[in-house]
Amino acid sequence: MISSSDYNSIMREYGELQRISRAERDARVEEVYAGIPRIRELDESRGSIALQLVRRGGDPAEAYEKLRKEKEELLEAAGFPADYMEPRYVCADCRDTGYAGGQKCHCLKAREIKLLYAQSHIDKLLESENFAALDPSVYSEPEHMARVVRYCREYADDFGMDPAGDRETLQQKASVGKESGGTENGACTAAVSQAAAEGKETGGTAPGTVTLAASQVSDGAQDNGGDKKPAAGVRRHRENVLFTGNTGVGKTFLCNCIAKAVMEKNHSVIYLTAIELFDAMAKAQIRGDANMKNLYEKLMECELLVIDDLGSELNNSLTNSNLFFLINHRLQKRLATIISTNLNMEHIRDIYSERISSRVKSSYDIIPLIGKDIRLRK
Ligand SMILES: Nc1ncnc2c1ncn2[C@@H]1O[C@H](COP(=O)(O)OP(=O)(O)OP(=O)(O)O)[C@@H](O)[C@H]1O
Ligand SMILES: [Mg+2]
User: Fold this and answer.
1) Distance 329 CA to ligand 2 centre (A)
2) For residues 329 and 233, is the Cβ–Cβ distance under 8 A?
3) How many CB atoms lie under 10 A from the CB of residue 26?
4) Could you read off the pLDDT of 301-314 as tens digits, one per residue?
């Protein structure tokens, strides 16, 4: 959702559109009156003329229709389009009010999305990096990456539909996730974790190992485990994701795919590289920079925050404490965060802190991306 001040500014734009269309219509009306005085007459005495027609036994609707026709003929005879005196709206469906039939008009939704895009910091990039542009043939580990892509699509589809605190337990499907694809440095080993599938902490995994839970990359079939409740229509997952993998495996691309899809569902998304993020936070805190303060507030309240390339920043105690604060704040508020990084969990613990790594382990879906550097394969 956009903030209320952004909503109000969109509504002011609608007000302005209405004012312009009224002013333009008034000018056209004056032009017609000047050229065809009979039309002014008809308009000014519309009520009484219609009344006379009705008195002569006509029905009011017919009477008005007759007048409308006469006006139309006069206009056309003078070379004006029949609707020349009607208001012209940018959106005829809602007459530039933003609402049609008690619902948000498509044009209001589009305006909101446009604003969300602009706020996301990646509006340009999203033109080229999105699910429609995703090419599965770039992956050197197609099976694993197909599951990851499916996970990403489901994440975006389900976004905003997972009620807080109501996660279904999904039984891992025996047929999937039985793989362990190592990356060149062995940092990211895909392994099935029942604990993760059940939404528990994945703390039992060996250090340096990230877990790709079977349920997280399932083939999409719904399974509620041992209990016989019908499967929920919506696949449950954590709202937070850590994409980890070597350089060039496609982490940023998938973050962008999700960001775009989530934005198109009308949710607020902010994308920042870790360098930009820590820079913005520091500028807001230390220098009190107004723009950065505004961004800082959005970091704390946007529905999805994407932090790309965590670990690429120059790490210090301020970046550490800011990362902790941000992660913790967003977890408490149940706001979704996606992090992409070349680091594994062990690195994250060592570089940042146990407090950060334990929160990530317990509250994030940790999704390893594996394969060769796509930049070199292209
Ligand atoms: N599925 C895909 N289809 C088409 N192009 C892709 C796909 N995945 C990645 N790419 C392209 O491959 C290149 C590398 O991908 P990306 O930048 O996402 O890697 P990365 O894992 O974020 O790397 P780094 O760790 O260096 O940031 C980019 O140019 C990206 O646009
Ligand atoms: Mg990247």
Assistant:
1) 24
2) no
3) 12
4) 888 999 999 999 98
* Closest-lying ligand 1 atom to the alpha carbon of residue 369: 21
Using CA atoms, how far apart are residues 375 and 378, in angstroms rounded to an integer? 6
Residue 116 lies inside a defined structural domain of this protein: no
Model pTM score: 0.66
Determine the distance separating the centroid of ligand 1 and the alpha carbon of 143, expressed in angstroms. 17
Residue range of the domain that includes 337? 121-377
Query: From the CB of 306, is ligand 1 less than 6 Å away?
Result: no
| Residue 114 falls inside a structural domain | no
Counting ligand 1 atoms within 8 A of each CB, the residue from 260, 340, 374 with the most, and so the one to mutate, is: 374
Over the stretch 311-324, which tens digit does the pLDDT of each residue have? 999 889 999 999 99
Q: How far is Cα 265 from Cα 252, in angstroms, rounded to an integer?
A: 20
Q: Which ligand is nearest to the CA of 376?
A: 1
Domain of 259: which CATH number? 3.40.50.300
Higher per-residue confidence, 81 vs 294: 81
Q: Do 176 and 50 sit in the same domain of this protein?
A: no
Residues 197 and 228 in one domain: yes
Same domain, 267 and 246: yes
Domain co-membership, 235 together with 329: yes
pLDDT, tens digit, 9 for 90 and up, residues 168-182: 322 222 222 323 333
Distance CA 26, CA 195 (A): 69
CA nearest to 268, candidates 307, 296, 305, 302: 302
Atom of ligand 1 nearest to the CA of 247: 25
The ligand 1 atom at the shortest distance from the C-alpha of residue 255 is 18
User: Number of folded domains in the chain?
Assistant: 2
Take residue 102 and report the two structure tokens written for it.
């008690």
